Amino acid sequence: MTRKLSRRLRELQQKVEERPYEPTEALKLLKETATAKFPESAEAHIRLGIDPKYSDQQLRTTVALPKGTGQTIRVAVIARGEKVQEAANAGADLYGSEELIQEIQQGRLDFDLLIATPDMMPQVAKLGRVLGPKGLMPSPKGGSVTTDLEQAISEFKAGKLEFRADRTGIVHVMFGKADFSVEDLLINLKALQDCIERNRPSGAKGRYWRSIYVSSTMGPSVEVDINALRDLKMTDLMAA
């Protein structure tokens, strides 16, 4: 069944031409079409030339957004002994050992990110049924299984995000808020593009970048000229 578009979205779509936009132009259009009655996020939807059903074509990593996410991240930490106090001192919002695992099993999910120390992972693994569907299971690739709790907590609170390609090879990432300046959105989008480039799966053959679209949470999609984005230099953007 085809979803009926709202009048607001139909009117906004009329502002967007079916063509790739130069990055700055695309982000200006994203901001212009963010007209919902709440603070909208800026989202990127990137189609890559990969088939994630093969292990050497999977993409799962983290990106540190230089201008932050615009969100307050609630971090929970599962650790043992002195590491629990380390998590508390580093600014974790929730921390504990076996008792926190039990609370999560009973439905406590008032956090956005869960970090665990490696020695606790065998017990955390039991939470897979609870955490998995919500994308909250800690992973070494995502930087959320670590002994350096202070660094991990500070990085995630400052704007580090974990992301992965879905089963169709598309990456969906929030890279800021629609009320960020165009300059800050561009810096974050470039950091995301650089990160995906650096983490190209070994099995990815042929054309890696297929398309990239940006949008606000409730706005229309705007295609970005991927070659123009790749040609930008982060050092130039940061110096501007």
TrEMBL record:
Coiled coil stretches, renumbered: none
CDD domains: Ribosomal_L1
Biological function: Protein L1 is also a translational repressor protein, it controls the translation of the L11 operon by binding to its mRNA.
Keywords: Repressor, Ribonucleoprotein, Ribosomal protein, RNA-binding, rRNA-binding, Translation regulation, tRNA-binding
SUPFAM superfamilies xref list: Ribosomal protein L1
Domain of life the protein comes from: Bacteria
NCBIfam families with a match to the protein in the record: rplA_bact
UniProt subunit comment: Part of the 50S ribosomal subunit.
The organism's taxonomic lineage, starting at the top: Bacteria, Bacillati, Cyanobacteriota, Cyanophyceae, Oscillatoriophycideae
Name of this chain's protein: Large ribosomal subunit protein uL1
UniProt-listed Pfam families: Ribosomal_L1 (PF00687)
Similarity comment: family membership: Belongs to the universal ribosomal protein uL1 family.
